[in-house]
């Protein structure tokens, strides 16, 4: 073969090699990893999981409920003809008969070695709105596009540090997970990384949530009507005095004292296996009646032992609830569910007043120092991370501790020293809670408050914003005005008691002080919590209920200073 032919053959071989390498490079995915965000509007959790391709994605990853779905931040949507980037958004019509194939095509044809897929819904349908369903679905999976639709395997679930609840993530978590996946360990101001955990997906949790949404307003309203009848009837019975039969007075007395058991039953009902009227109503009624009358034998020794016993029972229940990670608060029957997106774990605001009142119903039987210590311990449990994780609740209980010490020791401390004790204990307690959350390994409501406050001016701005939330709550629900207006009236009744209340308050100064501190701490709870009327509600209920109930049940010789 001549030299010219050898040269031509070498050029031809080089051309073939370069052509084959070019074809191979053209077939290689342009990205090592990318994210695909697929949105299906107006789809419920069960509807999405009923799509076979969505169920298959959940086998490759996990499925969950998406709280605060409006917080999902969608990146730039490429225009028509624009090649997909590392973040690509697809909006699909869930009513198309080929929706499953549309999902499969969007995922399997994506040019990436590894793909993170988010499949979710944001805008609820009319059917979801009618059912009170505010938790749309989300499915997330990570892997090679060709491997994200397995035919067999167990479906996974989702969680994040934002919720600390299996099966629940937030809208802000989507963007935080997307950014961290593409750019490494980046921490955004909002949201946490979504984790895929062993399943099953939260079918049962969503079912319980919808059952609670259907029943909690009528049941809570019925409880409110009952308390209104008990309170107004107790006031009337006291005002009429001996003209009311003794048996009627006792009925209203026990009714007024039952507010603590009723409030506890509203929370404990969240543990029931079925959340229907047939199970919840009898449970709440039985807990309210027997949880109050169980302490009736104490009346023969001292009427004031009754609220003390009820208070101990309430505190024991809340200690158990904290150990159970506040799971009843996911579906309570007063206040909002922790699945609604305001608070996903810890002590709900609506039960702050119940804890304040229960502590003081117990403290009135203890020495001043022991009562103060009890309030401080409960304040720590209410406010610390891993426990109640509620800054407003902890601050309110620390305020109650300071008030208890200042009022019980008012003769020794005087007005100004007593005021200093109250302010000092409250501020030191709040600082202790803030410090505990600052060193917490995971982000909480309180650490987000600290990060977003931005100095003293920011703190005042946050407090004002929280007060505005309370104003909006009153505007939406005028009944929230009852504790707001009732607290100062009840405080005035304790400071200058009418003739019908005077005997029971004069017999036991400790009981008088316990009622006064309960009501004053309710005012503090209103100021320092965003849902102020809810936080103060049961403080008003236990303050007024204890005041009326003990007065109606007490008889000469059965009460005395412990």
3D architecture notes:
The chain has 562 residues and is α/β, with parallel strands linked by helices. Helices cover 59% and strands 8% of the residues. The protein is built from 21 helices and eight strands. The protein has a six-stranded mixed β-sheet with strand order 3-1-4-5-2-7, sandwiched between helices. It has a two-stranded antiparallel sheet with strand order 6-8. Helix 11 packs across helix 12, helix 12 runs parallel beside helix 21 and helix 14 runs antiparallel to helix 15. The protein is elongated and about 85 Å long. 46% of the residues are buried. The C terminus is likely disordered.
Task: Jot down its keywords.
two-stranded antiparallel ribbon, 562 residues, elongated, 6-stranded mixed β-sheet, alpha/beta, disordered C terminus
Mean pLDDT: 84
Helix count equals 21
Radius of gyration: 30 Å
**What's the domain count?**
2
Secondary-structure content class: alpha/beta
Assess the beta-strand content as a share of residues: 5-15%
How far is the first residue's CA from the last residue's CA?
Answer: 120 Å
Strand order of the largest sheet: 3-1-4-5-2-7
What's the short story on this structure?
The protein has 21 helices and eight strands. The chain is α/β, with parallel strands linked by helices.
């Amino acid at each position: 073969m001549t030299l010219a032919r050898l040269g031509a053959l070498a050029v031809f071989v080089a051309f073939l090699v370069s052509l084959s390498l070019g074809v191979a490079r053209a077939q290689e995915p342009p990205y090592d990893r990318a994210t695909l965000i697929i949105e299906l509007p107006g789809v419920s959790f069960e509807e999405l999981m009923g799509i076979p391709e969505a169920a298959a994605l959940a086998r490759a990853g996990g499925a969950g409920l998406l709280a605060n779905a409006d917080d999902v931040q969608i990146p730039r949507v490429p225009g028509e003809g624009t090649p997909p980037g590392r973040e690509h958004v697809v909006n699909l019509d869930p009513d198309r008969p080929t929706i499953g194939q549309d999902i499969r095509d969007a995922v399997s044809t994506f040019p990436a070695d590894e793909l993170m897929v988010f499949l979710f819904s944001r805008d609820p349908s009319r059917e979801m709105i009618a059912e009170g369903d505010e938790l749309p679905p989300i499915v997330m999976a990570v892997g090679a596009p060709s491997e994200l639709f397995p035919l067999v395997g167990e479906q996974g679930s989702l969680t994040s540090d934002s919720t600390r609840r299996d099966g629940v993530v937030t809208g802000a978590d989507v963007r935080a997970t997307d950014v961290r996946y593409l750019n490494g360990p980046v921490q955004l101001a909002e949201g946490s990384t979504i984790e895929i955990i062993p399943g099953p997906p939260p079918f049962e949790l969503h079912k319980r949530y919808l059952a609670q949404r259907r029943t909690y307003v009528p049941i809570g309203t019925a409880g409110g009507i009952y308390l209104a009848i008990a309170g107004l009837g107790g006031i009337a019975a006291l005002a009429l005095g001996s003209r009311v039969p003794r048996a009627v007075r006792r009925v209203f007395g026990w009714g007024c004292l039952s507010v603590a058991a009723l409030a506890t039953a509203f929370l404990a009902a969240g543990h029931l296996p079925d959340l229907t009227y047939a199970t919840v109503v009898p449970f709440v009624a039985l807990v309210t009646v027997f949880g109050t009358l169980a302490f009736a034998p104490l009346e023969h020794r001292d009427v004031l032992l009754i609220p003390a016993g009820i208070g101990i029972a309430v505190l024991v229940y809340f200690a158990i609830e904290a150990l159970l990670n506040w799971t009843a608060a996911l579906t309570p029957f007063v206040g909002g569910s922790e699945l609604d997106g305001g608070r996903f774990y810890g002590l709900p605001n609506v039960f702050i007043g119940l804890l304040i009142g229960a502590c003081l119903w117990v403290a009135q039987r203890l020495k001043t120092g022991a009562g103060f210590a009890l309030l401080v311990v409960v304040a720590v449990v209410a406010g610390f991370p891993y426990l109640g994780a509620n800054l407003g609740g902890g601050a309110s209980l620390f305020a109650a501790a300071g008030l208890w010490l200042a009022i019980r020791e008012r003769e020794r401390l005087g007005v100004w020293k007593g005021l200093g004790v109250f302010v000092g204990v409250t501020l030191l307690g709040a600082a202790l809670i803030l410090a505990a959350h600052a060193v917490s390994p995971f982000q909480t409501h309180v650490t987000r408050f600290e990060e977003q406050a931005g100095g003293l001016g920011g703190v005042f701005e946050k407090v004002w914003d929280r007060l505005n939330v309370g104003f909006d709550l009153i505007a939406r629900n005028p009944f929230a005005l009852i504790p707001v207006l009732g607290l100062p009236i009840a405080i005035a009744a304790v400071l200058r008691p009418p003739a019908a209340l005077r005997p029971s308050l004069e017999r036991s100064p400790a009981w008088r002080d316990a009622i006064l501190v309960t009501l004053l701490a309710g005012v503090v709870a209103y100021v320092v919590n965003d849902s102020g009327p809810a936080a103060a509600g049961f403080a008003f209920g236990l303050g007024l209920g204890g005041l009326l109930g003990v007065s109606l049940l007490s008889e000469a010789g059965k009460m005395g200073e412990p």
